[in-house]
Amino acid sequence: MGFDLIGVNPKLKDNPPQNSSREEYEEFLRENVGYYFRANGWYWRPIWNIVTLFCYPSILNNEDVEGGFYNDGYVINEEKALAIAECLEEKILTGELINVIEEENEYSHKLPNECCNICEGTGVRKNEIIEEPLFDREPYLLDENQPEGTLVECNKCEGTGQIRPVETFYTYSLSCINDFIKFCKNCGGFSIA
User: For site-directed labelling of 12, which of 112, 152, 172, 180 has its Cα 20 to 30 A away?
Assistant: First the structure.
């Protein structure tokens, strides 16, 4: 699940290209940083956690905080978007934001592995036909080189019986925060879709 932030009244150097190539559209986005910001769920949640940590309740209210965790069209107005950018820039300068990023990433790195929920820690699973209708794929045999029903290496844990906890998939990144700050300064408020 991704989070698409759409500028409500973005500062534009040019009008969005119509019927353009992907390269032209990407160039437009680089030149007009307040038009659109995208983060997948693994990046957006840490960004919004940091925003919440530093901007609640001084800038954001409870409804804003809650709205930021869903991609259902919640709007943050221009005044709040600018205040978020200013607050985050200040927290970068004081080192507070960088400390949070380092602490979160260190915590995540130190989490122990968990037992694989597919093979229950054995490292092997029954070779079976896999159906993934959400991915619009034809059903397939897990290991096409082995007969159906035999034990094969678990494809989730790669035979180790251990997996990383879901919490470790969330990435705290200063680069993403800086991109979000640029967006907030130029978006004229944003909708979270």
Answer: 172
Q: Which secondary structure element, helix H or strand E, spans residue 160, and what is its range?
A: none
pLDDT at 133: 77
Whole-Å CA distances, 180 to 109, 137, 184 = 24, 35, 6
| Backbone φ and ψ of 31, nearest 5° | -85, -20
Tokens of 152: 């094969």
Per-domain residue ranges of the chain = 2-111+167-192, 114-163
Q: Is the pLDDT of residue 134 over 80?
A: no
Beta-carbon count within 10 A of 177 CB: 23
Q: Give the pLDDT of residue 137.
A: 83
Give the pLDDT confidence score for residue 72 in this predicted structure: 96
**Residue 32: count of CB within 10 angstroms of its CB:** 19
For residue 147, how far is the Cα from the chain centroid? 39
Report the distance separating Cα 9 and Cα 187, nearest Å. Answer: 6
